[in-house]
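HUMAN: Would you supply a protein with fold tokens?

ASSISTANT:
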Amino acid sequence: MPYCGLEKDIGVLDAFINNRNVYSAVPVCDDPVKQPFSINILNSGENNIVFKSSKGSYSIEQIRLELELEETQKIVYYFELNESQFRNITKEDKKVTLLITFVDDDEEKKLDLSVNGHLTSIRQDEPKYSKDISHWVEEGNNYIELRPRTTLYIVKLEVKYED
């Protein structure tokens, strides 16, 4: 949203993202501007936005970037529990634990986890994740769905039935 001084004293306003010009025009004062740009000009990590005026002064406020990203691929794993295993779990004699090992890259891991439709979110920096999923399992076929929210590298996914 460009706010202007005296309208007769304003000139072309340029907007640069990472030194690439994405906007160059005399804006309508106090009127929001939406400017599409290629996502390819963004860097991983830090980015900069610079505004330059050829004449006059502007106050640029309420800057917001809206990114339309493709939805990430979900990953689905299946496992089975036989009748006696399930019976032991329901009696609370045994339990089922989900173990996920990520690459230890010091990056934050963000993903949504669904076990047979029971949804939880994971957000952590640690390379190992474990969760008791005993109350979410069923006799017969079961599924685990992972929907990454950041780039993830999974080394191993295990479902352990406590013997």
Q: What stands out?
A: The chain has a mean pLDDT of 90. The radius of gyration is 26 Å.
